[in-house]
Design brief:
Oligomer: single chain
Structural class: alpha/beta
Order of helices and strands: EHEHEHEHEHHEHEE
Low-confidence stretches: none
Mean pLDDT: 94
Strand content: 5-15%
Shape: globular
Amino acid sequence: MSETMIALVTGANKGIGYEIAAGLGSLGYRVGVGARDAARRETAVGKLCALGVDAFGVPLDVTDDQSVTDAAELVERLAGRLDTLVNNAGISGETDPGWVQDPTALDLEVLRTVLDTNVMGVVRVTNAMLPLLRRSASPRIVNVSSSVGSLARQADPDIEIPIMAAYAPSKSCLNALTVQYARQFAGTNILINAACPGLVATDFTGFQGPRTPEQGAATAIRLATLPDGGPTGSFFEDNGVVPW
């Protein structure tokens, strides 16, 4: 079996996910580009291959059990194992002007949809890929989170964070899940951490934000390539650990 490292990045057809895929590819990884939209997925694969990245498309809807099962089977056929999983796919859900989700008027269907993608989708994908990750000598899992999921920062009146009653709790839950997985993986070679990309100018944010997608991808790439014995069960941004 080839010793080339194998990575799968969900939501990798654009934005931060694409740049994570490009960054890992530049380090010599063979990268699976996970995405729902076939045209965008194949466009991303083509762009990556033009950059010299060994990339392949993985049809993947993280909210669909069968799609996730099929994706795991495809990665197994094409690569035989998985060294790195980056759970990047995520949505904000509908917001009011100012990127606000008022908890007193929150549509429960919006909350369900956000949680299904941002939380349950990560569980679906992670658990489906675990048999492949366990074949790796140094498996790494990165959950792309957000500092708005930090309860400490949310509760700090001196930090300006919009009220996002669906998106922010979904990232808090993702952070808590990251810790639970790390506890379950204790004593194994699997390292799992959460990464905050910061406020990045992509279509996700309406192209508002001081950071580029490349800058937003940096922490996830670092965590995806941690050496053995590195941290696990933690939440990082560029400047270090993010408070829970």
